[in-house]
């Protein structure tokens, strides 16, 4: 919980199963449905229950110039 709101942690994994850090030290940008997110020191994504149910597309660009797309089909915690 953060500020009274539940958050669920997600991690991005590469094809070999290794975690791809989402920390500012590893990324150029990350977007959610085309909108830029503020980068921080977290290696994972914390997704808030305040987001309505639906499909969310994330685009991640690393400093190694790798680009990833991930879709989260979100249902808030009851």
Can you describe what's shown?
The chain is mostly beta strands. The protein has one domain (7-74). The chain has no helices and 8 strands. It has strands at residues 7-10, 12-13, 19-20, 27-32, 35-36, 45-48, 54-62, 67-74. It has a 4-stranded antiparallel β-sheet, with no helix packed on it. A two-stranded antiparallel ribbon has the order 1-6. Strand 4 and strand 5 form a beta hairpin. The two termini are 14 Å apart. The relative contact order is 0.26. The mean pLDDT is 93.
Task: Please name the defining characteristics of this protein.
78 residues, mainly beta, four-stranded antiparallel beta sheet, two-stranded antiparallel ribbon, 8 strands
The total beta strand count reads: 8
Query: Approximately what portion of the residues adopt beta-strand conformation?
Result: over 45%
From the spread of the alpha carbons, the general shape counts as globular
Helix content: under 10%
Order of helices and strands: EEEEEEEE
Structural class: mainly beta
Radius of gyration, taken over Cα atoms and rounded to an integer in Å: 13 Å
The strand line-up of the biggest sheet is 5-4-7-8
Number of structural units classed as domains:
1
How would you summarize this macromolecular structure in one to three sentences?
This protein has no helices and 8 strands.
Task: Please describe the topology of this protein.
Elements: E1 7-10, E2 12-13, E3 19-20, E4 27-32, E5 35-36, E6 45-48, E7 54-62, E8 67-74
Antiparallel strand pairs: 1-6, 2-3, 4-5, 4-7, 7-8
